[in-house]
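Field reference: "sequence" (input) and "structure" (output). Example, histidine kinase:
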Amino acid sequence: MHRHSLTWERQETDKARQRDYLTFALVRSGVCVTLQDANFDYHYIANLPTDWMSPGSDDPPTDLSIFGQELGKKLTEVKKAIFETGQKREFEWVDERGRTYHFLVELVFDRENGRQIFTTVNDLTDERRREKTLRTLLKEVSHRSKNLMAIIQSVASQTARYAPNLERFVESFHGRLQSLALAQDSIMETDWQGASLKDLLERQLNYFPLQVKKLVQFEGEDVLISPNATVHIGLALHELLSNAVNYGDFVRQNAKIKVCAKLQQVQSTTPTLTLTWVEPQTRTEKPSEQHKRFGSTILERVVPNAVSGKADYAFSEDCIRYSISFPSNA
C-alpha cells in the first residue's frame, strides 16, 4: 500500500484549484480511472469508455452493471485477491468488437477511508493494431530480403562462372546489382505493391547514358506488376540494355528500340502480360556465345521461370527480338 503524490508542487498551491487542473488533465488524457472502498462501493468513475454501461442515478454502480457479466466477474475476483495479497494486478481484455484494454488494479491508502481500490484502464486498441501491422511488415521484409539475397547469390555465382576475368566480373556484377537496387526503389515507392512497367524501364535506363535513354521508346499498356515480377523483369531489361549498348549499333544508327506491353485475356482467369523488346540492328553477324552466355541465361531461363512465363529470344538480320509472356499477377 502506498500514497501517490505530485512530482513537485508549491506549498501555497490552492488544493481545490490543483484538483480541478488535475481532473481536467485526466479527462483530456482519455485514461479511465475508478476508485472503490473496501466494500467495493464506487466513489468515482472518470472517462469510462463507451463500450461499457455508464452508471445511472438510481442504482449504485457495480462491476457487473458497468462491465458486464464476464469482465465484471473477473474484475471483482481480481480486486478480492488484491485485498488478500496487497499486490497489484494487471491484465488485458479484448471485447466483442476487438478493442483491447489494459487494466491496472492496485491498493491505495486514504487516512479517512483506509484501504481503497484504484483502477486505471487504457485503450490500447490502436497501439496493438500498429504492433500487429509492424509485425506483419517485418515478416514481409524478412521474406523479401531472403528472396532478394537468393537472387543476388544466384547472380553472383552465374556472373563469376561466365566472366573471363575479374575486371569483367566486377563490371557485370555491379550493373546487375544496380538493376536490382533500382527495382527495389520502385517497389518501396508503391508500398510493396510492385511497379509500373514504364517506371521500371525508366529507372533501368537511368543507369545508362542519356543518349541511350532518348532512343528507347515504351508503347502499350503501363501495367502494374508484382514485386517479384518487378525484380526479375527489371533484371531482364538491364540485360537487354547492356547487350544493346555493348554489342549493338542502335546509337550509331540513331535508331529507336521499342519496348511494347500488351495485356490480354487468354484461357485462364488471370490476364497474360506480354512484354516485347525490338532492337534494330544493321550488323549481319549474331552475337558470339561469349556475348550471350549469362545474359542469355537470365533472359531465356531465370526470368521466365521466376514469373511462371515463357520467353523467346531471337536474332534476325535487321533486329533482335525478345518477348516474354507471364501471368499479370506473377
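The CA atoms of residues 87 and 106 lie 7 Å apart.
The longest strand covers residues 100-110.
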